[in-house]
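Hi all, posting the design record for the shared folder.

TITLE: backbone redesign
STEP: 1 of 1
STRUCTURE INPUT:
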């Protein structure tokens, strides 16, 4: 009697179950890693935006009217050119031209204080 080579249904089901179990345990770590990388990017972008405001104040003795003005006058840049050296690597804006944080929410600029903060609920006080 000749035996055919190949996988049985039970072997395929067991392999599939192993893949599901491994995925079940690794997916939360993947989500945690993605969140951590966005938090790191948020901290860096806030630093760049706040330093841009600082340099603007040093030059003009007043706070910029908006983050758009900060970009237009060359204090921050999203395209790789800034005389202050303050560059955010990827331009992220919504359809109204508002700058977006790594979580996809608008950066909030408080002109009275010259402060920039995240619009993401969890990080509003950062």
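Okay, here is what came back for every position:
SEQUENCE:
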């Amino acid at each position: 009697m000749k035996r055919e080579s190949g996988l049985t249904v039970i072997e395929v089901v067991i392999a599939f179950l192993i893949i599901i179990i491994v995925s079940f345990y690794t997916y939360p770590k993947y989500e945690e890693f993605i969140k951590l990388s966005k938090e790191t990017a948020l901290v860096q972008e806030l630093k760049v935006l706040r330093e841009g405001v600082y340099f603007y104040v040093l030059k003009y003795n007043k706070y910029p009217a908006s983050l758009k003005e900060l970009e237009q006058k060359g204090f921050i840049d999203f395209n790789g050119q800034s005389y202050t050296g303050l560059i955010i690597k990827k331009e992220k804006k919504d359809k109204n031209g508002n700058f977006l944080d790594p979580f996809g929410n608008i950066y909030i600029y408080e002109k009275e204080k010259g402060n920039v903060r995240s619009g993401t609920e969890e990080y509003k006080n950062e």
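COMMENT: The first strand starts at residue 108 and ends at 110.
Let me know if anyone wants the other runs.
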